[in-house]
Amino acid sequence: MPFPLLALAAVTEEGMREHMYHLGEATFWQSVLDWLKSPGISIAAVIASAFILVRAVKFALHRTERRLVRVGDDLVPSEAAKRGRTISAVLGSLASVVVWTVAVLVVFDRLGIKTSSIIASVGILGVAIGFGAQSLAKDLVSGFFILAEGQFGVGDVIRAQIAGATITGKVERVTLRTTIVRGTDGEFQVVPNGELRVVANLSKDWARVVLDVPVAPAQIAAATTAMREVAASIKSDPDWEPLLLSEPEVLGVEELGKDEAALRFSVRTRPLKQWDVSREVRRRIAAEFAANGISGEVNDDVDSG
What we know:
Elements: H1 3-37, H2 40-69, H3 79-110, H4 115-130, H5 134-149, E1 157-162, E2 165-174, E3 178-183, E4 188-192, E5 196-201, E6 207-215, H6 220-236, E7 249-256, E8 261-269, H7 274-292, E9 299-304
Antiparallel strand pairs: 1-2, 1-5, 2-3, 3-4, 6-8, 6-9, 7-8
């Protein structure tokens, strides 16, 4: 082929490529424009709005929870703080479910899918499931009253009876359906709210330490004096006095047998601090008895208020 014809062919091929490139670019931007004119932009706006709304609700709940936590002191969180943590977690989860459910229905509507038929189908399915989900409804109702009445909250230590068994531990999370308890040995226990029979809140308002000290009947007077010394020393100790809510008392002889008498020591403490105080009092009684030649051992009982 003569050189002029080759040059013309090359120019023509390059021009066609450039034309196709510009045509493809125009087609792309035309597709983007068509998508913006279509329901795409509204769908994107709905999803973005749902995400922002959920984040905003959780942020507001977190701010409220932090303000409630500051109401308590450094030793024990206030009841308002514990209840705030619990309700914040439940409302956050509930808000996410409601917002995203509405967002999905709106997206279906933008895509031309009839949501009325979907809602009707879900309603029929819900009725069918409802007959077999009575335990779920029981859990939800029980969870509602736990939250509404403030029976216990996140951070509380509880002792609960469940189907013949007893569990004790710290509440880590409460939802409408379940309560999550971390046991004293570290067990992660998930308990349906409807299964909770009797619940003892060991960290509600105040707690009490009760110690019964067995001594020989001949040593009752000396042991009583030694225990009163312990009561006075722990009350005057700046490290322990903030944990006490009453004057430590030696109540006297609780039990009297032929070979043994039991002297009772009692004091009210801040919630969740009864075990620390109990250990310290036992240590001091043992040391005081050893210093005065008194024999005895301490049997303790810790109550919650």
